Amino acid sequence: MGSLPVPAFPAAAAKHGLDESSHIDESALTTLFKSQQSHLNFFFEHVDHSQTLAFTRALLNAAGTVFFTGVGKSGFVAHKISQTLVSLGIRSAFLSPVDALHGDIGILTDRDVLVLLSKSGATEELLRLVPCARAKGALLIALTSVEGNALAAACDMAVHLPLQRELCPFNLAPVTSTAIQMVFGDTVAIALMEARNLTKEEYAANHPAGKIGKSLIFKVKDVMRKQDDLPICRESDLIMDQLVELTSKGCGCLLVIDDRYRLIGTFTDGDLRRTLRASGEAIFQLTVGRMCNRNPRIIGPEAMAVEAMKKMEAPPSPVQFLPVINDENILIGIVTLHGLVSAGL
């Protein structure tokens, strides 16, 4: 297949200060990505693992809250790392260095850890924050990339994040240094996750609105229809007398029960069509019990909702619903594929 033609330079682009010389080719872009990869590899090859271990243990053993702080791009990274720890069930928060100097430092205690992110280690706002945070008794840890900087010297602990240079051609824009900070912080977060033996269920409990969380938290009883929403009938009922029940509940089926509410079987709208084709006018005399499926797929209320979805999709052919029964075969609900999808599963 030949290469696609390069589109003509759009006239609209000229309105935004661009001209024909404003372009980048694939070779130049590839070179930039390879350069960034090289800079990141420099970090991985030179990071001091003994410093990293001491830092990780300090966070793991923190009796209070692990606060992160930084200015500018480092501040955004600090905020993100803190949020990652929170999602893992670790007490953490971002502390704005400016706001801290105007009252917010009151949240710090001698049980807390304060992690200060700065590429240069010369950030004025952080240097001003150090003596105030020290007076509160917090453990201060600097994450910096310049050797022998003032912030590292002023803190109780320092981790050097090796930086070969920024990808920026002027070696100024913080694009490689912030990538290193993010990689370092998130890797330590996973180390803490493993050290705390966080289970998948505990992780999911911190993400209840996400698909992962829902698949590990929601049980069938949380998403099933109950009581008046159930399309029920008796096995002696005539099929034609139950058409309203079959169609009005939106489940695509009838749940056939006995006098004790025990499930006998199911009769679907597909069963109705097949019965009509096979029986013709005789369908007016047929009972639901005679034509129902007496061996339907079922599920219990304590099963995980994601298990219900797998059971619906299992061979030999998928189904759109599962009756929910208790240990005594009593019908207590129905879970539908539509209901599972609506719940975010």
Automatic annotation (TrEMBL):
<dbReference type="InterPro" id="IPR004800">
    <property type="entry name" value="KdsD/KpsF-type"/>
</dbReference>
<dbReference type="InterPro" id="IPR001347">
    <property type="entry name" value="SIS_dom"/>
</dbReference>
<protein>
    <recommendedName>
        <fullName>SIS domain-containing protein</fullName>
    </recommendedName>
</protein>
<dbReference type="GO" id="GO:0005975">
    <property type="term" value="P:carbohydrate metabolic process"/>
</dbReference>
<dbReference type="InterPro" id="IPR000644">
    <property type="entry name" value="CBS_dom"/>
</dbReference>
<dbReference type="InterPro" id="IPR035474">
    <property type="entry name" value="SIS_Kpsf"/>
</dbReference>
<dbReference type="Pfam" id="PF01380">
    <property type="entry name" value="SIS"/>
</dbReference>
<feature type="site" description="Catalytically relevant">
    <location>
        <position position="207"/>
    </location>
</feature>
<feature type="site" description="Catalytically relevant">
    <location>
        <position position="166"/>
    </location>
</feature>
<keyword id="KW-0677">Repeat</keyword>
<comment type="similarity">
    <text>Belongs to the SIS family. GutQ/KpsF subfamily.</text>
</comment>
<dbReference type="InterPro" id="IPR046342">
    <property type="entry name" value="CBS_dom_sf"/>
</dbReference>
<dbReference type="GO" id="GO:1901135">
    <property type="term" value="P:carbohydrate derivative metabolic process"/>
</dbReference>
<dbReference type="GO" id="GO:0097367">
    <property type="term" value="F:carbohydrate derivative binding"/>
</dbReference>
<feature type="domain" description="CBS">
    <location>
        <begin position="224"/>
        <end position="283"/>
    </location>
</feature>
<dbReference type="Pfam" id="PF00571">
    <property type="entry name" value="CBS"/>
</dbReference>
<dbReference type="InterPro" id="IPR046348">
    <property type="entry name" value="SIS_dom_sf"/>
</dbReference>
<feature type="site" description="Catalytically relevant">
    <location>
        <position position="73"/>
    </location>
</feature>
<dbReference type="GO" id="GO:0016853">
    <property type="term" value="F:isomerase activity"/>
</dbReference>
<feature type="site" description="Catalytically relevant">
    <location>
        <position position="125"/>
    </location>
</feature>
<keyword id="KW-0129">CBS domain</keyword>
<feature type="domain" description="SIS">
    <location>
        <begin position="55"/>
        <end position="198"/>
    </location>
</feature>
<feature type="domain" description="CBS">
    <location>
        <begin position="292"/>
        <end position="345"/>
    </location>
</feature>
